[in-house]
Design goal:
CATH architecture of the largest domain: 3-Layer(aba) Sandwich
Structural class: alpha+beta
Number of domains: 2
Strand order of the largest sheet: 8-9-10-11-12-7-13
Number of strands: 14
CATH class of the largest domain: Alpha Beta
CATH topology of the largest domain: Aminopeptidase
Largest sheet: 7 strands, mixed
Distance between the termini: 21 Å
CATH superfamily of the largest domain: Gcn5-related N-acetyltransferase (GNAT)
Number of helices: 11
């Protein structure tokens, strides 16, 4: 583990190079995501034989690896990664492993695989999220139209002037949801502040719904690969009906119209979140797995 180092902002060019050579399909593998969540998951990384290796050391639970990324021999990289994780814990696992890796780069004689439904990503056609056309989106479209009809608002792209407003909105949201009492929401709050503090250094885009000169909803997202964007964060004032539908639609329309797909990440097994994500009728799922060595 001596060669592994904590992720820092100056590591971005290295990650960008690996991810360009081997574009990811899972939502975890963007530098923005890894950096903004670094205080929660405490990732460390190392490059070996043209493969990028990442290990998470969360504050709660055992360390685990992410699947190797790059143009090198991923069979060897996976074995090396497993050996390094074994130095930290006897319970070796590689998690958030996408189906493409399982089919192409996994040796089934060496590793067991277990489906991870709670962390599988929901992927939508961008045009569906923008137009909300068709019978299945009838209720969503009505909800959005009602918001547009009843409210005066402006969509604004995130810039340096708006960063502080985003932070104010996040603070207000956290007060409403009592983040201090909920470790998951507190960790998310820290991650959002990390991303906003580094706006300009990271490669994400942001958008907001502004009402009465106040940010009432915002969203942050990243290019994931050539045809897909990933939405990392979406927040809205829960007291304003239709606001979530509005920020979802406007952000996709203004930031990601050129992408074929939008990945809206996982539901983490939360029933309400799963229901909300399924209500937008995903085009497909990026199924994920947990790998464990057989010996």
């Amino acid at each position: 583990m001596d060669d592994f180092k904590a992720i820092e902002i100056q590591d971005k060019p290295v990650f960008d190079r690996f991810l360009k050579l081997d574009p990811p399909e899972t939502s975890e593998m963007t530098f923005t995501n890894l950096f903004m969540w670094r205080h929660h998951y405490r990732p460390v990384w190392f490059s070996k034989d043209d493969c990028l290796l990442v290990i998470f050391q969360p504050k709660r639970g055992d360390p685990y690896g992410l699947p190797p990324v790059g143009s090198g021999d991923k069979h060897k990289a996976l074995d090396f990664l497993s050996q390094e994780i074994r130095k930290l814990t006897p319970e070796v696992s590689i998690r958030r492993v996408g189906e493409r890796f399982v089919k192409k780069d996994l040796d089934p004689a060496k590793y067991e695989r277990e489906p991870d439904r709670d962390n599988s990503d929901y992927v939508y056609l961008t045009k569906d999220l923008i137009t909300l056309s068709g019978r299945k989106f009838h209720r969503k479209k009505n909800h959005l139209n009602k918001f547009i009809k009843e409210n005066v608002f402006e969509y604004r792209k995130l810039d340096t002037e708006l960063v502080e407003c985003f932070m104010d909105m996040q603070e207000a949201w956290c007060q409403m949801r009592e983040c201090v009492e909920k470790p998951e929401l507190l960790a998310e709050d820290y991650a959002i502040r990390e991303a906003l503090t580094r706006f300009g250094d990271l490669n994400y885009q942001g958008g907001a719904i502004v009402m009465n000169s106040k940010v009432e909803a915002f969203s942050l997202g990243d290019p994931l690969n050539q045809d897909t964007a990933v939405i990392h964060i979406e927040k809205a004032n829960p007291d304003i009906p239709g606001l979530y539908a509005a920020i979802n639609q406007r952000f996709c329309e203004n930031a990601w119209a050129e992408k074929t797909y939008v990945n809206r990440e996982q539901d983490m097994g939360v029933e309400g979140l799963r229901k909300a994500k399924e209500s937008y009728y995903p085009h497909h799922m990026v199924n994920k797995y947990t790998l464990t060595p057989k010996t």
